């Protein structure tokens, strides 16, 4: 005996040291069972004391028999029974028998029968040879699992959802530390004695991020939302802030929650930020709400726990559901809508939703919605100057801010890059045109980069489920001023039915990848730059769109004097900016592209003179070495220069044009160039009467009556 004690002492098993966690847990388990006996006496409902007694015996069976240590479902069964008894005591304590509905009393009797059945099955397992239990474990596992399922059915018929609290799980888990066990027992005893109103009121809510230090151009918006929230009396406001990523929706929402009037009205604990960006399933949405509210009690029905907690408050509460597009764009939108409806039905709870969308979520909820656009030029400049003062006076700053569309996030990232690298706005603009949004992926702000921000929308489930939306977005990105549904259907996406295009546009609006201005759908500048990145843009779509632009200008090519001129001019005017944007990006010396550029250059002479199109035609025709097309490009470049009052440069273009036409044996066009050489001396230092006579002679020899008249 002494030798055995010495051996145990050497092995540390002399039982004289501090109790182990397992020993503490077992003692706490005994205390729990004793507490159940006391609690059962408080409920004068027939059958309840028997149910608790049977449940207690079942837990002792699972605890005492070493056989159950080999069965993985035994612990689950014990936990479910323990949690069941907590529910039963909590729901019925302090009530008189006559206050309990007849159906409920019947369910209690059924529950007693189910527990006795489970006890009999466990006794059968316990009476087996331990060796057989181990060798044929799966057979007994199935039996224990059947008991677990029987108990689950009993719970369902009883009308109670399984009551797994974080505390109860900790008590049942032998690996939890002693501190947690004591805390858990304290909570269990509190439930058995008197449940305090607002169980989670003493728990910590999620921390609201502070308002950004650099925040310009949104004061009026913040003031308006704050007033809306604190002025509601009978029902709290339902606010929905919509718009693309990078516009500052979250910053505005945070500023509203930190507004002095809002803080005073709702208090410190009742302003709750719910970050939904990672809620990629309905269950994650519920869990995010649950965690943000700081709840601990869990009946197994998370949404019911959330709603009950909110109902328990007597004071107004505001929930900020930030980035709500993540759960809303899931396949299970109906379930997400149910969560939203239950929250909206609580009159003392204000909802503030931010999401990348064109329409607010949840049909039937009366939202005060706002679609957030870019900041104005002054606020945009202030954002840049605050971050990069050295670049605030650079003459290239306005062009840079225009290029990123005055989107707050893009301006912020540009300014930080300028400050870090020592680049002035003009240099940043040059780099941005070369690298696109990838330029804004550098440095410490990589997690807030534009590529990541835009990518969240493009890679969303809505876009994955809508291939037509992806194609429509690609084509719209090639159109600088956007297009109507009619124009998209008639020209730009002609291989797709109008209904399919319409559905695609709906998806793009839902993801805030496009904006709708009147009846025109437009892609914002920064998003265009992202989509058009050569590394990701489909080249076949670009080529097809260029062919469409060429076909458009070939069909609508009416000139002054033609019967079709006015109709063709109006058609070209409607799509002129888009046609220019597409054709100026071409580099191929293709005759069809050059001729399309020339039609557009002629159109611009009569509408809005500019030289970019004609000069691009000049470059491509020179590369092609086609003298006729080269002469046309020089001619229309000269005509646009005349319209811009640049007469000296225009005269040079007409002389070169005439020489090219004569070399190509284009006598008529050479005479037209000569006419402008004759005409311009009115405004230049080159008057020459002989040129007039030569031009007249050429038109007469050609029989060109219009030329003779001019």
From TrEMBL:
Write down the superkingdom of origin. Eukaryota
Query: What residue stretches are annotated with the Novel STAND NTPase domain?
Result: 213-357
Q: Does the keyword Coiled coil apply?
A: yes
> Could you tell me the keywords of this UniProt record?
Coiled coil
Among its keywords, does the record have Coiled coil? yes
Matching SUPFAM superfamilies? P-loop containing nucleoside triphosphate hydrolases (SSF52540)
Recorded coiled-coil stretches = 94-128
Q: Region annotation Disordered: residue ranges?
A: 1-21
Q: Name a Pfam family for this protein.
A: nSTAND1
What is the name of the protein in this document? Novel STAND NTPase 1 domain-containing protein
